[in-house]
């Protein structure tokens, strides 16, 4: 158990809809990262938050947004969903900032858009 | 931009065989390098890491050496077990928006070990 909790584990929704994925980081970790894993794109970094503030952006679509709350949990909002958004979405946490710091991953949320 | 290239899978080996999964990278500066493993239905777990040139990371019989001259971080294990069957990802610590910490992953290599 990595200590990172993601909910829900599975989500099935229709095109055009909006969903929210939730992540609780490990106790004490200030950084939260979101990744998307799909068959064609592999694992892609989406966005990072550190102590409530956006820290870095990767290949995140404009239809997607995220935030980190004062209790350090994070939510990833996906809107106007398309079939191609079907993927496994991972959250990871680490602390402190730094390139050598290990990131701990949750078990992921599998999103299926139908 | 920074990138990671790892050998395509799947790789199928017999138990006790020697394993090598090749990984090369392109990066500015001196990134940290990682191998993560993903067992079926689970998230990614850090297998080993190296933070500077010539460092060797090791864990559970797996090893990888950070080779700056060849920009490589190949994963090796002398004798694989059925329980090693998983997908292995090579990664480096990237820089996006000026911040380190986010990871750039290779496409993953699926390993199947037969008894």
Low-confidence stretches of chain B: 96-100
What Rg of chain B do the Cα atoms give?
14 Å
Instruction: Count the beta strands of chain B.
Output: 12
Biggest sheet of chain A: strands, sense, closure?
7 strands, mixed
- How many helices of chain B? The count is 0
Alpha carbon gyration radius of chain A? 13 Å
**Sheet/helix structural class of chain A:** mainly beta
E-strand count of chain A: 11
- Low-confidence stretches of chain A are none
Strand content of chain A: over 45%
Most strands sheet of chain B: 6 strands, mixed
The fraction of residues in strands of chain B falls at over 45%
Query: What's the mean pLDDT score of chain B?
Result: 90
Q: Give the rounded overall mean pLDDT of chain A.
A: 92
Distance between the termini of chain A: 31 Å
Helix percent of chain B reads: under 10%
Termini gap of chain B: 41 Å
Quaternary assembly: heterodimer
Shape of chain B: globular
**Can you write the helix and strand succession of chain A as a string?**
EEEEEEEEEEE
Strands, helices and their partners?
The complex is a heterodimer of chains A (114) and B (115).
Chain A (H helix, E strand, L loop, with lengths): L4 E3 L2 E4 L5 E6 L6 E8 L3 E9 L2 E5 L6 E5 L5 E5 L8 E8 L9 E2 L3 E5 L1
Chain B lengths: L2 E4 L4 E4 L4 E3 L1 E4 L6 E6 L5 E7 L5 E4 L2 E4 L9 E3 L8 E11 L2 E7 L3 E6 L1
Parallel strand pairs in B: 2-12
Antiparallel strand pairs in B: 1-4, 3-9, 5-6, 5-10, 7-8, 8-9, 10-11, 10-12
Fold and architecture overview:
The complex is a heterodimer of chains A (114) and B (115). Chain A has strands spanning 5-7, 10-13, 19-24, 31-38, 42-50, 53-57, 64-68, 74-78, 87-94, 104-105, 109-113. Chain A has 114 residues and is mainly β. In chain A, the strands form 2 sheets. In chain A, strands 2, 4, 5, 6, 9, 10 and 11 form a 7-stranded mixed beta sheet that branches. A 4-stranded antiparallel beta sheet of chain A has the order 1-3-8-7, with no helix packed on it. In chain A, strand 4 and strand 5 (42-50) form a beta hairpin. The N and C termini of chain A lie far apart (31 Å). The mean pLDDT of chain A is 92. Chain B is globular. In chain B, strands 2, 5, 6, 10, 11 and 12 form a 6-stranded mixed beta sheet that branches. Chain B has a 4-stranded antiparallel beta sheet with strand order 3-9-8-7, with no helix packed on it. Chain B has a two-stranded antiparallel sheet with strand order 1-4. The chains are: A mainly beta (114), B mainly beta (115). The A-B interface holds A 2, 4, 31, 33, 35, 42-45, 48, 50, 55-58, 90, 92, 94, 97-108 and B 31-32, 34, 36, 41-46, 49, 51, 89, 93-94, 96-108.
